[in-house]
Structures are given as C-alpha cells and as structure tokens.
Design a protein that fits this description.
single chain; 465 residues; alpha+beta; two-stranded antiparallel sheet; 8 strands; binds iron/sulfur cluster
Length: 465
C-alpha cells in the first residue's frame, strides 16, 4: 500500500540520517586518534565505524516493515543527546567566600629553595620563625637540584637544555621595575576600551594565546618580598589598579613525555615566551606614560592564577593551576600590572569545580601524592583545593624535572582537535555530560598516565610551529 511504503521510506531515511551522523562523528574521532597516535583507540573506533556502515546495508535492503529496534535506538540516541546538551547546570563562579588577605611571598615554596641560602641571616631567621618545615626542607635540600647529576632523568646532553632556557629567563627578568617613560610630558590619553583592544592585539601578536584585562584586586599583591629581587622581607607597595593576564599554550606532544626532560623543556620555553610578552607590554605601557610592571617567572609581585581568573581566562582546578576552556591547565601565565585604566573582562564558569569533584585523575596519577583528594577548603577567604607543595617539589628533585604529570593527564588538557573541542563544549553543558565525558576519557585514554617513552628523537622530528 502506498501509505505503508511511505512510512517505511521515511523510517529508512531517518535511520540512514542517524547512522550518517554517527559515521561522521566516528570519522572525526578516528582523525583525532591518528593525530594523537592513539592506535588501539583508533582501531576500536574503526571497528565501530564498520559496524555503523554495515547498518546502511541492513536498512536499505531490509524488508522488515517496522524497524522497531532502530526506532527504539533512535529514541535512546535522542534522549542521550538531549541529556548531555541541555545547559541546565553550566557551573558557578563562587570561589571567593570570605574576606581576603594578602599572601607573604616568603610563604611560597620556591622562595625557600631559590632565595634562601643556607646559614645566611635570612635563612636562619626564616626557619627560626617556621620550625615546622625545617626538617622537611632539609631533607629536600639533600636531593640533587633540578637538571643536575644524581636525579633519575639526568642526561648530560639534554638536561642543560632546560637549564639554559631558565638561566636566560632569569638573566633578563631581574631588573624590570621600569618607571614611566620620560619622553612623554603627560600620559597619552587612551580610553579604557582603546587601550585594552590595543594591548590585547599586541599581546597576541607577540605570541599570547589568551589575554584578558581586569581591575587588580589588592588581595592578590604579595605583602612582602620573598623569592623575587628586592630587599628580602620588604613590604610591597604596588599602586597599580589594573592587570593584564597572559597565557601561552604548552605543546601537548612535548608534555606527553612528562615527567621527563622534553616536558620540562617545553615548560621552560613557555615561561620564556610569557616573560617576553609581559615585559614588552610593560615597556610599551610605560612608553605611553603610565606605570607598568611585568610579573614573570621568579619575579612576581602578584599571584598569577587569581588574576587570570578575574580576567576571564579560566577557572582554578584541583591541581592548583588555572584551567582554561581552550587548553585546560596546559598554559603558562604572566601578568602585567599598571595604572593605565583598562576594561574589566568577565570571569568565566564552565563547570570546572564540578568536573574536578568527580574526576580526580590528577590526584590519582600524581607521583608525589601531592594533590588533594578531598573537597576544597577555604583559605584566606577563597574556596580552593590546596596541594602539598613540599611533596610535589620533593618528587621534582628526585626526578630532576618539573614533572607535569598532573597537567598531562587532565582531561581538559587534550589538544585542540575537533573531537576534543566538542567534548569541551559538552562538559560545559551539565553534570550528566561531565560524567559521560569522564567515562569516555577513562575508556579511551585510561585512568593511569602512560608517558611517551617511545620517540627518542623528539628534537629532530618536532619543530615549534
Ligand atoms: S607536578 Fe607532578 S608531583 Fe607535582 S602535583 Fe603535579 S603530578 Fe604531582
Ligand atoms: S585532572 Fe581532573 S580533577 Fe584534576 S584538575 Fe583536571 S579535571 Fe580537575
């Protein structure tokens, strides 16, 4: 009967459309796995693709008048698609929960190991005031320094590559407290909107992958000098009102080696790039007649992560770093503070707090057992996960690199291939989608980190793009 034929035809068209969409998605996934050299996952998805393609033949030649199973499958597909795409729980931006106070830079771990020299008055005073960490730090000091002989990953040819980059960074970032240029009688008059647009465009030209502007929260200025150049323990007065947050992506193929030397070289090189951008921007702003200061590795007067959060670059994650929507924690940050008025970018929320509460992949893989597994705690008015800095750094010294395993395994840190962009969009939708994405992540990539140890010729085969 014509009516029956029409119904069968419509059902068949519907089924073919669904299978076509599924095949298209599977092809996208296969493309991503080939790029990432995930051979087993790629073969598994290829089998699924063949099964899906054979579904076409079944549908076209089947004489079954009502395709009950596929109609049922369609309903399930529709239900799952709606459930994971509805934006009914996009996340919340509620980190600041109480009165905030400034942090003394001397309380940061790197101050103790990069500034305090044994038996100096500063050293003796610090451990007199903090006897609870004297023995912990003394045990760490007995381990080899990063990139030096004695650590697990030490290599006399490759280890100095990281050291060479960081030595250059340190040598050019010591003296960066520039006054406003005297060539201008008065500051060049720019509206906040114009100034922000130009600065962001210039930052991107210089190599920034993400850049945002914000008012500077005084609570994010360190109270006293610790590691950074300047008189040890001197009170910090930074009369700046606005900040620029800069993020540069770290390459995921280099981080795949974590915790080995290539990952450390990538980290160091990205610090170099962020430092260059921040210093040039600060110099540029000073040439417009305003005060500006770059805050770069080893020479901070401010805390980078909360400023980057305020500037809309991302959210803080369980691993203690900024998680960006585009690259996850796979970025390095620098900041410029200034008295030039800039626009205020809006902080963003994309579900990181909830995703981190169910994921814990970084904590499960941390070789130093340093990342918190429990719920966030409130520290100085901010709700956050607090890692054990000493446990992390102890592993660095044993390993001879700055590790990076937590960054590497984070599901947000995948490369920017189309499949991962779709997954990032999905996890922003709701809590069901996050659980769905986490399940897929664990099935495809596994819960445990597998470092790339196969390709030893990374220097000759991989060039910076
Ligand atoms: S860098 Fe390594 S040791 Fe430190 S928190 Fe991350 S995974 Fe743990
Ligand atoms: S690995 Fe998981 S828990 Fe850790 S920061 Fe990334 S998303 Fe959060």
């Amino acid at each position: 009967m014509p009516a029956e034929i029409n119904i069968i035809f419509i059902v068949k068209v519907l089924e073919c459309s669904i299978i076509g969409a599924v095949c298209g998605f599977l092809l996208l996934v296969i493309h991503s796995f080939i790029k990432e050299r995930q051979i087993k996952a790629m073969l598994g998805v290829t089998v699924l693709l063949f099964i899906a393609i054979s579904g076409f033949g079944f549908i076209v030649y089947s004489t079954v008048s009502v395709h009950f199973i596929t109609v049922f499958g369609f309903m399930v597909f529709l239900f799952v698609a709606i459930a994971i795409t509805l934006p009914f729980a996009p996340g919340a931006h509620n980190y600041v929960v109480g009165e905030q106070s400034r942090v003394d830079e001397r309380d940061a771990l790197f101050h103790r190991f990069y500034r305090l020299q044994p038996d100096t008055p500063e050293f003796l005073q610090y451990y007199h005031d903090h006897p609870e960490i004297r023995d912990i730090d003394a045990a760490i000091r007995k381990l080899p320094a990063l990139t030096e002989p004695g650590s697990r990953s030490y290599n006399p040819v490759d280890s100095p590559m990281m050291a060479s980059i960081m030595d250059v960074v340190n040598s050019i970032t010591r003296d960066i407290d520039w006054p406003p240029s005297t060539s201008n009688i008065k500051p060049f008059n720019l509206s906040p909107k114009d100034a922000s647009q130009r600065i962001k465009a210039f930052a991107r030209y210089l190599g920034a992958d993400l850049v945002g502007t914000t008012k500077l929260n005084p609570a994010y200025i360190y109270s006293h000098i610790g590691r950074a150049p300047g008189e040890w323990g001197a009170a910090i007065h930074l009369p700046h009102t606005h900040a620029i947050a800069i993020a540069v992506e770290m390459r995921s193929d280099m981080l795949a080696y974590a915790p080995a030397i290539p990952a450390t070289i990538e980290t160091s090189d990205t610090y170099f790039t962020t430092a260059k951008i921040a210093m040039v921007l600060a110099k540029y702003i000073s040439m417009l007649g305003y005060e500006a200061r770059a805050h770069v590795d080893g020479n901070y007067r401010v805390m980078c992560v909360p400023i980057a959060v305020d500037a809309g670059l991302g959210e803080p994650g369980r691993l203690g770093l900024l998680i960006t929507p585009q690259f996850g924690p796979r970025v390095r940050l620098s900041i410029v503070t200034t008295n030039l008025e800039l626009t205020q970018d809006r902080p963003i929320s994309f579900g990181v707090q909830h995703f981190c509460s169910i994921c814990k992949k970084c904590a499960d893989n941390c070789p130093g057992n340093a990342i918190a597994r429990h719920e966030p705690t409130v520290v100085r008015g901010v709700r956050k996960w607090v890692s054990q800095q000493e446990a992390c750094y102890r592993f660095w010294r044993k390993q001879g690199t700055d590790c990076g395993v937590c960054i590497r395994v984070c599901p947000y840190a995948h490369s920017s291939l189309p499949m991962h962009r779709i997954m990032r969009w999905l996890v922003n939708r709701n809590s069901f989608a996050r659980r769905f994405a986490l399940l897929g992540e664990n099935v495809v990539y596994g819960r445990r980190h597998r470092a790339n140890t196969a390709n030893s010729d990374w220097l000759t085969t991989w060039k910076r793009s």
